């Protein structure tokens, strides 16, 4: 249900560079910072039938946990009256299609949150130090939690020690992580 545009000429150079970088580096998690609301948003950002309702990904529980860590470490995000606990599913709140958050998860195996860090879409420069302070511990706690969560490792052949391509699945979660045959230094992560 995500628009796939395989025409290389249709993407901007910056978009192509980010896509290539994400596929090459195998990031575990990422975040996009936005303004205009105060909430930690997680996938999916859209639905198959283009209607607005809660549409969780196969890793919905993990995404909710990540969003909650951010929200509850924030100065006041978790106190939101609009968003219980300061978190929301993108498809339920603000559906978009072809966005980076869903692309990262679907195509790069990267768990991305969209962090709406200020109700003000265009905050004044003098407000930036305060916004930084309100979000600093949230970001640090989120990163610290990722280091302690999931499985991490490398996959090698037992006879020659060569890196092996593999798909890793966790029982009860309908998503996989792939290791790369091309890069022996790739460490596999699954949150």
From TrEMBL:
- A Pfam family in this protein? Peptidase_M14
GO biological process terms held by the UniProt record: peptide metabolic process; protein processing
Family in the record: Belongs to the peptidase M14 family.
Q: Which gene encodes it?
A: LOC107773408
Name under which the protein is recorded: Carboxypeptidase SOL1-like
What organism is listed for this UniProt entry? Nicotiana tabacum (Common tobacco)
Q: Which domain of life is it from?
A: Eukaryota
Q: Which Gene3D superfamilies match?
A: Zn peptidases (3.40.630.10)
Q: Where is the Peptidase M14 domain?
A: 1-146
Instruction: Alphabetically list the UniProt keywords.
Output: Metal-binding, Zinc
Annotated active site: 116 (proton donor/acceptor)
Q: Which GO terms describe its cellular component?
A: extracellular space
Q: Does the keyword Lyase apply?
A: no
Q: Which GO terms describe its molecular function?
A: metallocarboxypeptidase activity; zinc ion binding
As cofactor, the record names: Zn(2+)
Signal sequence span is none
